[in-house]
Design a protein that fits this description.
The protein has about 425 residues and is an alpha+beta fold. The protein has three domains: about 120 residues, Roll (Nuclear Transport Factor 2, Chain: A), CATH 3.10.450.350; about 100 residues, Nuclear Transport Factor 2, Chain: A; about 110 residues, Distorted Sandwich (Glucose Permease (Domain IIA)). The chain is built from seven helices and 24 strands. The strands form five sheets. Strands 13, 16, 17, 18, 19, 20, 21, 22, 23 and 24 form a ten-stranded antiparallel sheet that branches. The radius of gyration is 29 Å and the shape is elongated. Bound molecules: zinc ion. The site of zinc ion (ZN) has 5 residues, from loops.
């Protein structure tokens, strides 16, 4: 829950990258639908006579924001709160809230009796858009409690045609544009986000949290569908919490497992290591790949679906091919005798992309297989890849029901979209 709520800078950075990557410069044109679907019934707005759970009769509320360098003690002393009270509060807060963690820019409030010369009775610090901490400042009755603003959960369905950057299309459609990032993650294994075309349609059902009418946290995609011409790809979220994953209409995982090695029959002749004696140069060097020895001409296979990013030659690598599988993973195959693919070519897992050779710095025929994760070379034999298991038999019925109900929500969103397009033209 907390992780879902947190709005990470990382996500924003990815959002900007996606914004740049999937931009196509075309005429803006957007259709969409959006409607609240379900509300959490346990949440109601705070009625006016209380603030942060404190009865406000005869009280006044004064709000501010924590300034850079301000401390809990300094903030309270400035209001005339005695050192003994501050000390008691620090102790009471232990285990609940670390008073050293007041963050600059966060809102706070003092609640003071509505009579001249009175010291504040309560101090409230807002830890995030949902959680706040109430410090009761009355000497002898000091206490610290945690409170929460009422959170409203809503589900939305939206369909948008790609006219330019998906990020912009979603924003214009009234959705949180971060959905563009989330969609690229959901479909990382099934859609090449570099090749999205204008006129392609995304429909999404997602859940959102809001506090007092403001969106908080990151939305969660429950189902999505991508339509490009006749090609339709769907994704349905199934499972609980971190165990949840996305599946297609048939219940197959949207993730794909990589082949364990780029050769059918092979033996590792040299493993991944941060330090080894280079067989040709005779110096200690990192070996950021795994060598598979095989006879000249042995077919080299793409370990997963992807696009050939490079098919070229350098002095050290010899003839090599690099494949981009999705936004996270790329693989590279060195020392080929012969390259059998071209740059920009789309390949499927198991396709033959070249032949084993010893071009470049190599002592004998082998493939040096290199594996990138988020731009960093890693030892693929030590990586834990996401599960690519289909829906378990025991979950079939539940999955099918969920798929059907979310599927009709996607249909509705797309239908509304189609109708508005009919009207437009
Ligand atoms: Zn190697």
């Amino acid at each position: 829950m907390k992780r879902w709520v947190s709005w990470t800078l990382g996500t924003m950075a990815v959002a900007i990258i996606v914004y740049v990557l999937i931009g196509v410069d075309v005429r803006p044109h957007v259709e969409y639908t959006e409607e609240p679907w379900a509300e959490d019934t346990t949440t109601v707005p705070i009625p006016p006579p209380t603030a942060f759970g404190v009865p406000m009769e005869g009280m006044v509320l004064r709000e501010g924001r924590v300034k850079a360098g301000a401390s809990f003690g300094a903030l309270l002393s400035a209001e005339g709160i005695k050192a003994s009270v501050i000390e008691a509060l620090v102790q009471k807060a232990e285990g609940l809230f670390d008073v050293r963690k007041l963050r600059a820019g966060h809102p706070y409030a003092f609640i003071t009796p509505d009579s001249t010369g009175s010291a504040p009775r309560y101090f409230i610090y807002e830890a995030d858009p949902i959680q706040y901490v109430v410090f009761h400042l009355l000497a002898g009755a000091e206490s610290v409690t945690l409170g929460q603003r009422p959170v409203v959960f809503t589900q939305h369905a939206i369909a948008t045609t790609v006219t330019g950057a998906l990020y912009n299309d979603l924003e214009r459609a009234g959705a949180d544009p971060v959905l563009a990032v989330l969609l690229s993650e959901v479909f990382a294994w099934t859609i090449d986000f570099y090749r999205i075309q204008k006129g392609d349609v995304f429909s999404v059902v997602y859940a959102e949290q809001s506090v007092e009418g403001r969106r908080v946290g990151t939305p969660r995609i429950l189902a999505a569908r991508y339509t490009s011409g006749d090609a339709v790809k769907a994704a349905f979220r199934f499972g609980e919490g971190d165990g949840a994953s996305f599946f297609d209409d048939e219940g197959n995982s949207l993730r794909k497992a990589f082949l364990k090695a780029p050769l059918k029959f092979s033996r590792v002749s040299s493993g991944f290591s941060s330090r080894r004696l280079h067989p040709v140069q005779k110096v200690m060097k990192a070996h950021l790949g795994t060598d598979y020895a095989a006879a000249y001409g042995t077919p080299i296979l793409a370990v997963g679906d992807g696009v050939v990013e490079q098919a070229s030659r350098t002095g050290g690598n010899g003839n090599f091919v690099k494949i981009r599988h999705n936004g996270v993973y790329s693989t590279q195959y060195l020392h080929m005798r012969k390259i059998l693919v071209k740059q920009g070519q789309r390949v499927q897992q198991g396709d033959v992309i070249g032949e084993v050779g010893s071009t470049g710095l190599a002592t004998g025929p082998h493939v040096c297989f290199r594996f990138w994760k988020n731009g960093v070379q890693v030892d693929h034999r030590k990586e834990e890849f996401p599960s690519a298991e289909p829906i378990a038999d025991a979950d079939r019925v539940a999955f099918n029901a969920l798929r059907d109900s979310l599927g009709s929500r996607l249909d509705e969103a797309q239908l509304t979209f189609a109708q508005s397009r009919t009207v437009d033209f």
